[in-house]
Amino acid sequence: MSKVTVIKTSDLPQSFLEVHPHNLYLYCKSYAAGLRANSAQVKNRSAVSGGGKKPFAQKGGGRARQGSIRAPHYRGGGVVFGPTNDRNYAQKVNKKQKRLALMHALADLAANERLFVVDSIAIESGKTKDAKAFVASFKQRDILVVKEMIDDQTFLAFRNLQQTYLIEPNELNGYLAAAYHAIVIEKAVFEQLTKEA
């Protein structure tokens, strides 16, 4: 395995340390909202079948007038103000704020010494046991692995590992960085992230 460097707060640009944590909160909230299936839907009184005929005469029965047995207060009637699947849960987050969220998540990991940089990540054998040994060497609960270009063999090796997720830099965001206990990142990717700060 290539050389492992534990990134500390002092190794990060000052701009990473000045980000307000609220940026990460807003991005995670937006990301989670975007994951919603938006499939909950109920039928209102116009969508429920039946109820075309007036249940009883308007007058003469001594009862309150009723127009349909599919009104909300009837069993089997429509639902009032229920969920519909035409609702949009998307929450806008600016590009700059997405960037700030990632910066804060990385700074938080560095403060707890859970951000690791390695020269390269490659499991040439393509075997899961080799990837498992690589991950176990960091002694962390779960790990996000960031590789510049994922090759087929490395993908196969990491594919079935639990508590481990292999991604490329364009997939890295504040939500994933905050969700995992530790991050292992290739040196070239880390340098690119800190250079853009």
Task: Characterise this structure.
- The chain is α/β, with parallel strands linked by helices and 197 residues long.
- It folds into two domains: 4-36 and 90-195, 3-Layer(aba) Sandwich (Ribosomal Protein L4, Chain: A), CATH 3.40.1370; 39-88, no CATH class.
- 34% of the residues lie in helices and 11% in strands.
- The protein contains seven helices and five strands.
- The chain has helices at 14-17, 22-34, 95-111, 128-136, 152-159, 174-179, 187-195; strands at 4-7, 115-118, 143-146, 164-167, 182-186.
- Strands 1-2-5-3-4 form a five-stranded mixed β-sheet.
- Strand 3 (143-146), helix 5 (152-159) and strand 4 form a beta-alpha-beta unit.
- Helix 2 crosses helix 3 (95-111) and helix 4 packs across helix 5.
- The longest helix is centred in the middle third of the chain and has 17 residues, at 95-111.
- It is elongated, with a radius of gyration of 27 Å.
- It starts with a strand and ends with a helix.
